[in-house]
Predict the 3D structure of the following.
Amino acid sequence: MSTYANKKGFGATLWDYLTTVDHKKIAILYLISGGLFFVIGGLEAMFIRIQLAIPNNDFVSAGFYNEILTMHGTTMIFLAAMPLVFAVMNAVVPLQIGARDVAFPFLNSLGFWLFFFGGLFLNLSWFLGGAPDAGWTSYASLSLHSEGHGIDFYVLGLQISGLGTLIAGINFLVTIINMRTPGMTYMRMPLFTWSTFVVSALILFAFPPLTVGLVLMMFDRMFGSNFFDVAAGGNTIIWEHLFWIFGHPEVYILILPAFGIFSEIFATFSRKRLFGYSSMVFATVLIGFLGFMVWAHHMFTTGLGPIANAIFAVATMAIAVPTGIKIFNWIFTMWGGSVKFTVPMLYAVAFIPSFTMGGVTGIMNASAPADYQFHDSYFVVAHFHYVIVGGVVLGLLAGVTFYWPKMFGTMLSEKLGKVTFWTFLIGFHLTFFIQHFLGLMGMPRRVFTFLDNQGLNTGNMISTVGAFLMAFAVIVMVINIIITSAKNKKVGNDPWGDGRTLEWAIPSPPPFYNFKQLPLVRGLDPYWVEKMEGKKEMTPAEPLGDIHMPNSSILPLTIASGLFIAAFGALYHMDDKTWTLPIMIIGLLVTFGSMFIRSVKDDHGYHIHKEDLMDDKDKGGKA
């Protein structure tokens, strides 16, 4: 007979999260850590905008500005957007496909801890001699000649963090292929699951080139090789190719989950099936495929020649077609629907014009002759942020608001949510719309100040005011979360009232085994199908029986912490310090020792007996 221990107290809860392999708790870990890094990246953005608010400002020095600029981009892309995307994936995808967990729960936990320790390592550079200062792309021509250890923190931190992302991508790929509930065919999967599936494939192919580039740069920086050093026969352009073969698919790795979130929201709050489901799936796959054929549009000015430029220009323009298909389908989903303007729906509706503007400027940049004028100007900064903030960040804000009741069992305040939405949206357009014109007026990107009487004063001040509005919106959202958590007012399984997919068929928050009985899927939007037939629960696909669950483990944490320790030894070995080699050896021993323990440990998980499942009140604990 199974017994359950309902753990209480902060210490027990902390230990529970440090050792968990439950995808729902890992989602919360990603959400908290990604939110923390989002705030750090936001503070760095505020420093940038304060410095550029007025001409000839000396709020920060030129060198410190380069560090802030580099860390803002690196933090927001790698340490904020990526984990927040994984938070929603972990919280939702196993529920949407009717699975009890992901395919590899242990690896899921390991992926998180690798990401976390990589991000922590990177940010410790602020306190250990200076942060990276060669831009978030860390072009080799700059990074090889950067003094101090800032670039070394970048290289090693992103290696550790990127390994975690790669593991997570493989895990979701296997989960979606192998763990769909009976009746859940590929063409019945929700759009968010489809976007996760395509994104996981992109991660599988996009992250290895980044890993290779970082390894080569590590050898150049730490061991005196000359892969990228032109003076010694290397080629600095190779770094740009390796980085952007990763870097442009990375944009789609971030935006496709946002597309998936918006697809769920449009269908839910229009009370209609998503218009053109098959074409939406085709468009998602096509975006993923074309995403690997456009990387050199970042390199039009490097002298690749007219043929290469023309090929990549055409490919870049072609990728707008499947994106356009999606936008029209979202509009047609709302057309004739019974639209309910909740906070998630407001984000979804605002996303369409915001992201479309970013797409239009992307087509402008895709024209190589025009790009010669736009390149390295604030026009590109405006385009990039219209895509990332107007797409990814709006998608994440919508997704967190939409799935918050499913993750935590409480509903965020709609009133405060609307305050966040309007202030963030207005602040976003104020900040970045004007930057198109600053770029066209000749303001270069990555400059730490500008002269008076160049016509740039007003635009930069407007941009800074907008940034403060966005910061205010984030503060309101944090207050909303605190108030909601304090009230702890519980909601039912379908708090929005219009849920269509499987995650809304089970309690909020879900029990740790997700489904007592795996549900039988009988069509697209399976929960909506059952509701239309007057049923309150899904039709089960199996009889009630014992459930097998994985054991918690501290080993993912120790494996990642070992690499974290070893990275310090590798980083400081150039300084001829006698303690670096022992530190590196200790770290590697911790990592490989933990891996050895995992390989020999007889860990088959545990069973929940069906008698215990009959007690609906029991939602947690471990047998």
In short: Residues 1-7, 617-623 have pLDDT under 50 and may be disordered. The beta strands are 547-549, 606-608. The longest strand covers residues 547-549.
